[in-house]
Write a structure and sequence with these properties.
The complex is a heterodimer of chains A (122) and B (208).
Chain A lengths: L2 H15 L9 H92 L4
Chain B lengths: L18 H18 L3 H23 L2 H18 L6 H24 L7 H5 L10 H13 L2 H11 L5 H8 L3 H19 L13
Helix pairs in contact in B: 1-2, 2-3, 2-4, 3-4, 4-7, 6-9, 7-8, 7-9, 8-9
Classes of the chains: A mainly alpha (122), B mainly alpha (208).
Chain lengths: 122, 208
């Protein structure tokens, strides 16, 4: 028998030896049953998990959000108070400068009058 | 697991004179479309059409019936999730065989750490009774195939159980084509060398 014939014979024997095995008549039913079971498990379990996680996350985040709001409100109030103080300071400075300018003008006028009076007439 | 591109799975032309096969392919295509639309009965038909191939691959790779049953059921459950991505019956056939092989090889790797060996008797009694041919030789061949390492065994099973060509096997197992050819050549040489010993009691551990 030639090499090729022996090879062909071996391949035929392999094909015969490796015929598909039967997993059982109810195999497809078992697959579909598992499919149904997994679908049934997934459907009702999904809702409470979502609700529970939402509830839990809300309970966890609400105090933190309130604290953040309180800190922001205090900070904003402090910033507004500072701004108001700064504005008042600027107004006071402007008034003081104005007063000094007026006082200076008056002093200059008095000084000029005094000098005029002190100087002898030609 | 990723789905291979649809371009590789054009429906092959049926040879003339094989009308019944073409009709069966058409029916299967219809079942696929109906299963994709959500019909459970159509999915059941797809499972029936491919359960033998998937189960046989799993059984001959894992060697334990319970594991093979579980793995092949897992493969079909996975298929149900991947149905929208399946474009044709050849694609479906390829996907199932590829997924079964990959999952079985993964499981074998996990099992290797626990050093669980394939029982030879279990491997020998896997089969349906042979209708013709040399029963002893077939049994001996099954024993020898069962002793091959996982990857050459997967290559051999896809070639001679599933009748896939080396290129398809290379795609399915994500191996270079030359590696597939090399596995086939070496495995056949080994089977030829040991297959002649028809006494099953002589089944020594095969070196590869």
């Amino acid at each position: 028998m030639s090499e090729q014939e022996r090879q062909r014979e071996l391949e035929q024997a392999l094909r015969r030896a490796l015929r598909p095995a039967d997993p059982g008549e109810d195999f497809a039913d078992r697959v579909v049953a598992r499919l149904d079971a997994s679908a049934a498990q997934a459907a009702p379990a999904a809702m409470p998990v979502v609700r529970q996680s939402r509830g839990r996350s809300a309970a966890r985040w609400l105090p933190m959000a309130l604290a953040a709001c309180a800190i922001a409100a205090v900070g904003l109030g402090h910033w507004r108070h500072e701004a108001l103080q700064r504005q008042r300071g600027l107004q006071a400075r402007a008034q003081l400068l104005q007063a000094l300018r007026i006082a200076s003008a008056n002093v200059n006028a008095v000084r000029a009058a005094v000098i005029d009076e002190e100087q002898p007439l030609p | 697991m990723s789905v291979p591109p649809a371009s590789s799975f054009a429906m092959p032309c049926a040879p003339t004179g094989e009308r019944h096969m073409a009709a069966a392919g058409g029916l299967e295509q219809l079942s696929l479309a109906r299963a994709q639309a959500g019909e459970l009965e159509a999915f059941r038909q797809l499972v029936r059409a491919h359960q033998g191939a998937v189960y046989s691959l799993a059984l001959r790779l894992l060697g334990v019936r319970e594991d093979a049953q579980e793995l092949s059921q897992d493969v079909f459950l996975l298929l149900h999730r991947h149905l929208p991505a399946i474009v044709s019956v050849p694609h479906l056939r390829f996907w199932l065989r590829r997924t079964a092989c990959h999952r079985a090889i993964d499981r074998l790797r996990q099992r290797r750490s626990r050093l669980v060996a394939l029982p030879l008797d279990a491997a020998a009694e896997i089969e349906a009774p042979a209708l013709d041919g040399d029963l002893l030789l077939e049994r001996r061949l099954r024993q020898l195939v069962a002793q091959l390492p996982a990857m050459p065994r997967a290559v051999l099973l896809l070639r001679y159980q599933e009748d896939m060509d080396p290129l398809q096997i290379a795609r399915a197992l994500e191996l270079p084509l030359n590696t597939v050819k090399s596995h086939l050549r070496r495995s056949l040489a080994l089977l030829r060398r040991h297959g002649g010993e028809l006494n099953p009691a002589d089944s020594a551990k095969v070196d590869t």
